[in-house]
Design goal:
Chain lengths: 339, 308
Amino acid sequence: MTGVTDISVDLDPRAPLLHVDDLHVEFRTRDGVANAVNGASFWLNPGETLAILGESGCGKSVTAQAVMGILDSPPAHVTGGRVLFRGADLLQLPEKSRREFRANRIAMIFQDALSALNPVYTVGFQLAEMFRKHRGMSRADAKRRSVELLDQVRIPAAQERINDYPHQFSGGMRQRVMIAMALALDPEVLIADEPTTALDVTVQAQIMGLLAELQRQRNMGLILITHDMGVVADVADRISVMYAGRIVEEAPVYDIYAHPAHPYTKALLESIPRLDHKGRQLNVIRGLPPSLTDLPPGCAFHPRCGYARDICRTDQPPAYQIAAHRISRCHFIREVLGV
Amino acid sequence: MFRYIVRRLLQMVLTFFGATFVVYALMFAAQDDPIQALVGERPITPSQRTALTERFHLDDNFFAQYWYYMKGLLTGDFGTSLTNRKIADMLADAWPVTLRLSLLAIVIAATIAILAGVVSGIRRGSIFDNATLAITLVVLAMPIVVLAPLAQLVFGIKLGWFPVTAGQDAGLWQLLLPATVLASLVVATELRVTRASVAENLRADYVRTAKAKGLTRARVIGVHVLRNSLIPVITLIGVDLGALMSGAIVTEKVFNIPGVGFNLFRGIRTEDGPLVVGFVSVLVIVFLVVNLIVDLLYAVLDPRIRYE
């Protein structure tokens, strides 16, 4: 499938496509150490969509960038854990081999395509760059392939638009360009970091539809990073809920909406405005997310949690397995589930 | 784009008249007795005085004099200096050497500023970054009236590495030392702007994208960051070039280079009104043209800017 010629890394085709295991990332700044990711774990199979859900600053983007290996270091340092791609630990690879994985096997798209694309180069240049630098294609071949890509993401008049600059596209079209660029080298994993947050609702639906379609065609693993529970419900197979740099609940999408097993997930669901609750006070999560430089002891959610008791203030809850693919980090799962 | 250029050219005409008017008025106001200044210590007969007054329209009011002057200027006649040389000839002699000097200076300054600025921008807080900051601050703090004679003394006379002065037909080698002195005037700001611009662009989202595309660090910086970072630097270099052409008064004097600054200095000292106004008029035009070119270049470098 991939045209990568020189991968010196042994890959095990039977191992999970992507497995992030106990990942730790910290930011060392003058004001102290911020623990952005504190043992995040998840896995992904081909053709599957995993949504990583959480508030701003919960570490979901940092996790994605650590998987890609594009964190700015300093200040960011990956201090522990493994990122296994088909069994090979990417964190142990030298930068040169690591680079081979980027875009070739794991690609990423970003929230704001206007700032994520280079303003001073044409879209054609930025697309063709992928083929020229990774595949050694000629200028003409790279251009032809770039036009094909823009056609695939359904940008009208691709032949002409290839010479346009990013600012000459609309928001939705720009995100399509980002997607085309990420898919240029047929990656096996696509990480989409809030791909629709900057877009209008109607355009959001189009982009999510396009992503889902391309994913089906290519049997690609998709990690969808979002804070929007509405986006998640339609497209995700599984959901990992992240809080203060940790996955606090993981479950198939249906289960999580029907029976949330973590107080945080439950609170998130209750804070969605619903038409059938019109006129009633909206349940919001009280308090603020904890400061990453000063995480509370025990369960990081306890200061905002209605179920919290003494044990929550001292003991960090382990990952309780509650069903085949369900995990929750809460001392009081039974109460939360209401069983 | 075309309409923009036309509009700018019209603006330039206005600016040109405004600037020459002000300079002319200042020289007019500062004039004490130009005829005495012309003849120096020698006595002058009333008939000679009348003839000269007639010739230079000295009895007419200020506006009439300005009118005569501009009429000459627009027909290509810069008039004669009080030393009786044609100012057009003096300009033709002075400009080539000043142009060479300032271009050489800007090349030196830009090369150092961009190379060191990019490295400092990438390695903020490193020894290299702090060292360049310290050195540029020292150079920046030293006035040119100190720096120029000092450089001449140390590198020209004591060490003998460079020629001490440069004449009319000075080659690159003779101009190297004065050009370096001149470059020190602008290198610090250019370096700091490059550094800040690179540092800012390194944090930009599109750099993250470029990394995610699996590009090498050399390509991320050399292609993606550099082009964006140079936009403000190029603008600054253009403005500096204009400033250097007019700002070489001290340097040209110290190194005895008969350029624009050298002539201006002499004109101001001898109250040679026509000479000063003539040279300044050309300087104004050069400055305006350089600025127009810089603004057009800006649109070439940054496709988001469209003039209409």
